[in-house]
Amino acid sequence: MHAWPASEVPALPGQGRDLRIHDTATGGLVTLDPGPVARIYVCGITPYDATHIGHAATYNAFDLVQRVWLDTKRQVHYVQNVTDVDDPLLERAQRDGLDWAALAEKETALFREDMTALRMLPPRQYIGAVEAIPGIVPLVERLRDMGAAYELEGDVYFSVESDPHFGKVSGLDAAAMRLLSAERGGDPDRPGKKNPLDPMLWMAAREGEPSWDGASLGRGRPGWHIECVAIALDHLGMGFDIQGGGSDLAFPHHEMGASHAQALTGEFPMAKAYVHAGMVALDGEKMSKSKGNLVFVSKLRRDGVDPAAIRLALLAHHYRADWEWTDQVLRDAVARLGRWRAAVSRPDGPPAEALVQEIREALADDLDAPAALIAVDRWTARQEQSGGTDEGAPGVVSRAVDALLGVAL
Q: Distance between CA atoms of 199 and 222, rounded to whole angstroms?
């Protein structure tokens, strides 16, 4: 599966500092020192509907991570998946009388268009669950053969008790885990499971549903968590720098994925930091496909909204915060974009070197994009009030905003 085209990242003088970011597993800030190649895995979409603002906010956060690392003169090895076979996709296809594979391809193509418009840097590998199945099957077989998995009526489940570190990603107790498991795709009440929290690794073929050859597992399809584990281990290996996604993935998805990988390899941890973006609400409720309370990026673009304004609307909120999308949020972003573009269109302006450093410092400090925006606002205000004599300053600001914030002025 191919990703989307990369926008050029302007080169800036000097370099930024190492990223300090919140790690869900420890509950505090950690400073990452990735070495010459920073490694990041971000969980992708289940493509049964278009990209909404909640998606965009999550991918914007991890785009900033890439930009901070690139500014430290590192390479970035970024991997993202597409869950292109799963219950929600199959249910939507059946509801609408569509072929599930065609629906997945259509929505994945639209996601690529949205990411391109928003200037999100693409992953090096963009892998669908279906194409990962040949790598998933041997992992499930290994877990079964080593006693970390078991069969139940043809399905294969992972035993959470096989990983002594289970629970260290989310920090939740068993009762909270059980509630979330039921809400987020698990089946804690299924009779016969060794532990209610045990997640499915391989689902035996069901009538009327797609299935693949699972060798000794029989025909079926993979569970949700093992999909990402197979892709991450294949392309990044253990101990990569960041496992990322929305905060609703901390449990069960990232918790279970970490345990799968740790049981398979005997190594800990799977990722050095588990980084989670907040949820975006609309009309007082979390924006989600299941509720249908969505603001689609593609719809905003069709209505003539500049993608740079959409991105500024996202950047105005700290990535870890839960926030609400409103018409006023978008109006504020459109106005800010207009002021910034007017300011950099002038032939000269106030010196900009300190501003570049302010943006760098804000982003290196747990991706504090709102602080970076305020710093650009201050430079813009000085430009509006008295201008300046530095002929290169507007160009410096324009390149810095593009390189570090992904906003083309």
A: 11
Domain count for the chain, please give it: 1
Per-residue pLDDT, 276: 98
Q: What is the CATH number of the domain that holds 362?
A: 1.20.120.640
Q: In this predicted structure, what is the pLDDT of residue 388? A: 82
One-letter identity of residue 281? A
CA 274 to chain centre: 11
User: What is the pLDDT at residue 159?
Assistant: 98
pLDDT per position as a tens digit, 173-196: 999 999 999 999 999 999 999 999
Range of the domain at 367: 305-405
48 with 88: CB under 8 angstroms? yes
pLDDT at residue 284 in the model: 86
Q: Could you tell me how far CA 91 lies from the centroid of its own chain?
A: 24
Domain assignment present for residue 214? The answer is: no
**pLDDT score recorded for residue 288:** 75
390 part of a folded domain: yes
User: How far is 49 from 23, CA to CA, in rounded Å?
Assistant: 30
pLDDT at 283 (0 to 100):
86
Q: Is 183 exposed, middle or buried (0-12, 13-18, 19+ CB in 10 A)?
A: exposed
In whole angstroms, give the CA distance from residue 354 to residue 409: 19
> 313 with 330: CB under 8 angstroms?
yes
Instruction: Return the exposure string of 49-73: e unless at least 16 CB atoms fall within 10 Å of the residue's CB, then b.
Output: bbbbbbbbbbbbbbbbbbbbbbbbe
Give pLDDT < 70 ranges for the chain: none
Tell which residue, 301, 101, 103, has the closest CA to residue 212: 101
Q: Within 10 Å of residue 208's Cβ, how many Cβ atoms?
A: 7
- Whole-number Å distance between alpha carbons of 351 and 341: 17
